[in-house]
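User: I'm writing a tutorial on reading structure tokens. Could you give me a worked example: one chain, its sequence, then its tokens, then a sentence or two explaining what the tokens reveal?
Assistant: Sure. Here is the example chain.
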Amino acid sequence: LPLLLTLSTLSYWLSKVGIDKTTIGLFALAGTPYTFKFLWSPVIDQAPLPVLTRLLGRRKSWLFLLQILLAAAICAVGFTDPAIDAQATALAILAVAFLSASQDIVVDAYRIEILKPEEQGAGAGTTQVGYRIGLLLAGAGAVAMSDFISWQAIFAILGAAILACAVFTLFVPEPERHD
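And here are its predicted structure tokens:
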């Protein structure tokens, strides 16, 4: 969901509120965290989160925290007005991209650790189904909703979808540690 939100849907929204093409092009830089997520993935992979790791486990704690922060960041985007303060919108979108890239790190690690080798293909396929559902919601869903409700409400709905994922995270098993 957040990937398309920081790319195509963002460009559509910015064009609808009258932002010039050059500025919209600069917003494409918000996707940079996806390229460089390898830089902070070792931290997410190894660092425990105080309290949450004890309660949920290493992978679930990171996933839960990132999803809560991601939901808040997506909602924050809706409270910005790019026509008045493009910098605030850019910072909020950058936060969404950073948190989304971080979530990708944890989801991939979780999937690899929770599944047996012979289940990896099906697991990757299932991950892609979730990815495609997110694309539909953040892409066509957001654009279709924009004809009927405000962008602030759309970002709140998208944030709520991520919040639902965070609740779901509480009920999945934690992978066994083998270190």
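What the tokens reveal: The chain has a mean pLDDT of 93. DSSP finds nine helices and no strands in the chain.
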